[in-house]
Amino acid sequence: MKPKRTLLLPKAARSLAILGQNVKLARIRRRITAAMMCERAGISHATLTAIEQGRPSVSMAGYMSVLFCLNLHNDIEKVALDDELGRELQDLRLPKRVVL
User: Fold this and answer.
1) Is position 3 within any domain?
2) Does 80 map to a domain?
3) What span, in angstroms and rounded, lies between the C-alpha atoms of 100 and 71?
């Protein structure tokens, strides 16, 4: 059986690739070797390589484990925090108040 392939839109793939590059740079800046990161995050070297390349096949847990080891896990909480478009769409669906 062929492994399932995850397809992404080009913009999403670029964003994931940038995330992978940023993770690698953060690891190198902290002088953490790939072997040390794998041990701390509990992942294989192949998984770390896939994360640093921004491959979509890696689970969110793999990305989070590495971000936690880099002390960057709180940054994930900022994703979709200020959802301007969602709020505008929500406001459009709100019933209008009737003022008497």
Assistant:
1) no
2) yes
3) 55
Query: Given the structure tokens 């062929």, which residue do they identify?
Result: 2
**Tens-digit pLDDT profile for residues 29-56:** 999 999 999 999 999 999 999 999 999 9
- CB neighbourhood size of 54 (10 A): 21
Per-residue model confidence (pLDDT) at position 3: 66
Mean pLDDT lowest for which of 14-23, 44-53, 69-78? 69-78
Contact between 6 and 57 (Cβ < 8 Å): yes
Instruction: Look at the chain and report how many structural domains it folds into.
Output: 1
Question: How far, CA to CA in Å, does 61 sit from each of 47, 66, 84, 90?
Answer: 11, 9, 27, 31
Q: Concatenated DSSP letters for 61-98?
A: HHHHHHHHHTT-GGGGGGTTSS-HHHHHHHHHHSPPPP
Whether 61 is covered by a domain: the verdict is yes
pLDDT value for 100 = 60
